[in-house]
Design a protein that fits this description.
Layout (H helix, E strand, L loop, with lengths): L1 H17 L2 H10 L5 E6 L15 E7 L3 H6 L1 H5 L5 E4 L13 E7 L8 H11 E12 L5 H17 L9 H7 L3 E9 L9 E8 L2
Length: 207
């Protein structure tokens, strides 16, 4: 039953939630900053594709292990303005040459990636010295009361939401992996409960 839920129920549900117009506006503000050879972790249904600038992108390497999400991506892939290389593996399976990536894109994916701290260290190694990480994630709130609920709810939430954690400290984790936060905004996403809607949006680099 869990397998059927993960394969057929969860992908369209995630696609619906992550495809809301208000989230699209956040994507539109961030994704055009990508350039060169792009690595997108947790590609999902390709919701970022319309916002890539074709003149600045040589290729998007799309990492997405979910068969259900790959089915959801078909329409967006067909209309993609940029070349896409699909990798049907988890981020923890990546093995990329040092300095081979110009831009890493992380949108609503670090909450779910297994071994996420290890993955971030590998992404730091793979990123070019002048490269950048574009991140738009939800995670651990800066409010103590909200954090308590995030910690309480995460064990149940991650079972229902495909492994999604409510309480990962996004900016702190990026810094622990060796990235330098260049810009970051944190805010509650309007329309979402606070425990699930604390947003980190920004850019990180290696210097």
């Amino acid at each position: 039953m869990t397998n059927l839920y993960d394969r057929y129920v969860l992908p369209p549900l995630i696609n619906y939630c992550c495809g809301m117009e208000s989230l699209a506006e956040l994507r539109e503000a961030l994704i055009p900053k990508a350039r060169g050879r792009v690595l997108e972790i947790g590609f999902g249904s390709g919701l970022n594709l319309p916002f890539y600038s074709a003149s600045q992108i040589s290729k998007v390497i799309a990492v997405e292990p979910s068969e259900g999400m790959r089915r959801q991506a078909a329409e967006n892939l067909a209309r993609s303005p940029v070349p896409v290389e699909w990798l049907s593996i988890g981020a923890e399976e990546l093995s990329l040459p040092a300095g081979s990536i110009d831009t890493v894109v992380l949108t609503f994916t670090l909450c779910t990636v297994p071994e996420w701290e290890k993955v971030l260290v590998h992404l730091h190694q793979a990123l070019a010295d002048d490269g950048r990480v574009l991140f738009l994630e939800h995670g651990l709130s800066d409010d103590g009361q909200v954090r308590k609920w995030q910690n309480r709810l995460t064990p149940v939430w991650k079972r229902l939401a495909g492994g999604c954690h409510l309480n990962r400290p996004i900016a702190t984790a990026l810094e622990a992996a060796g990235f330098r936060i260049r810009t970051v905004e944190t805010f509650y996403f309007e329309g979402a409960p606070k425990f699930a809607g604390f947003i980190y949006q920004g850019i990180a680099g290696k210097d």
